[in-house]
Design goal:
Elements (H helix, E strand, L loop, with lengths): L5 H10 L2 H41 L2 E4 L2 E5 L3 H9 L1 H13 L2 H17 L5 H9 L6 H12 L5 H8 L16 H26 L3 H9 L4 H29 L2 H7 L11 H11 L3 H27 L9
Antiparallel strand pairs: 1-2
Helix pairs in contact: 2-14, 5-6, 5-9, 5-11, 6-9, 7-9, 7-12, 9-11, 11-14, 13-14
Length: 318
């Protein structure tokens, strides 16, 4: 039968109370964690979940501030999908406007690879490119409205100076150019942010992968396609989700530059929701529009996750 020395018995007695002490500390950490989460969770519930739930309930009612609510069933959704031409225009414009995300990612990737190379003053270039992102969106809208102005706008001045046009172009007043003009401003604003995200991803790619690919005879294009893109996929996916969210919430830029016009050429779902609720006082219809936009956004996000998520991090140079 094994015997223990007095020293071992004392050491064992000293060790026994540590287990409940560790459990008590862990319990305290869990409690503190939830306490710190309470303010953020409260804000999220009050300003996200409750309004979303209220919009869902409102979309099935006839409701106005001056009359009691009545059950409407699917009336607003039938009106929206079957008879509302403005909704179809807003949905189409929103889909087109979402192209700002992939276009911005492609341009930002080129800039990120440029400023990641061994060029002089690359730190200055990174700063200059990123400066567009911290600007207030209202300020960006005012700047680009001036650039597009028919009389004193810089773009028309340059085009006329080069002899490319005889008459000034009404960029924001033409049905054919208004949406593209606003998209250009949106891409310019978010380009620097995308570049920083992709540049961080590029700098985290181990250099020895490119060295091994060069030894195996892979050219620059194959290295980009087989190494850079797969390892950048998480960064690209992050940029894509941010771009999609921005396209669904780009109210201030549209409002400042075109206010949804001319006609409904730049009307997005978010601006149509605002117009229905606060200009036409159709809060019930605006609630239905909000539900449709939310479902549409979630669907696009899931598809983006499926396309861009994939097998991130897998490298194949063969």
């Amino acid at each position: 039968m094994a015997t223990t020395t007095p020293e071992e018995a004392i050491a064992g007695a000293l060790r026994r109370p540590r287990k409940p002490l560790i459990a008590k500390r862990r319990h305290r950490q869990v409690v503190l964690t939830y306490l710190f989460l309470i303010p953020a969770a409260t804000v999220f519930i009050l300003y996200r979940l409750i309004p979303l739930g209220w919009n869902f309930v409102l979309s099935f009612q006839f409701w106005s501030p001056t009359a009691p609510a009545e059950f409407a069933g699917l009336y607003h959704y039938e009106e929206m999908f079957l008879f509302d031409d403005v909704f179809r225009d807003a949905l189409k414009n929103t889909l087109i406007y979402m192209l700002t995300a992939p276009i911005g990612i492609i341009m930002a990737l080129g800039l990120a690879m440029l400023v990641n190379s061994q060029i002089r003053s690359r730190g200055l270039y990174r700063t200059l490119i990123f400066l567009s992102y911290p600007l207030m969106t209202v300020g960006v809208g005012i700047i680009w409205r001036w650039l597009y102005d028919e009389k004193v706008g810089l773009f028309n001045f340059i085009l006329r100076s080069l002899g490319l046009i005889d008459e000034p172009i009404a960029f924001l007043e033409s049905f054919s150019t208004a949406l593209a003009s606003v998209m250009a401003a949106a891409i310019w604003q978010i380009l620097g942010f995308f570049m920083i995200i992709l540049l961080t991803g590029l700098q985290n790619i181990p250099e020895h992968l490119y060295e091994a690919a060069s030894i195996d005879g892979a050219n620059r294009w194959r290295q980009f396609y087989r190494i850079t893109l797969p390892l950048l996929r998480p960064s690209i996916f992050l940029c894509l989700i941010i771009g999609i969210i921005a396209s669904f919430t780009s109210f201030d830029l549209i409002f400042v530059m075109t206010n949804g016009g001319p006609g409904h050429a730049t009307e997005l779902l978010i601006t149509y929701i605002y117009r229905s609720a606060f200009q036409l006082s159709q809060f019930d219809y605006a609630g239905a529009l909000t539900v449709v936009m939310f479902v549409f956004f979630i669907t696009i996000a899931i598809l983006a996750n499926f396309v861009a998520g994939g097998d991130a991090g897998k490298v194949d140079i063969n």
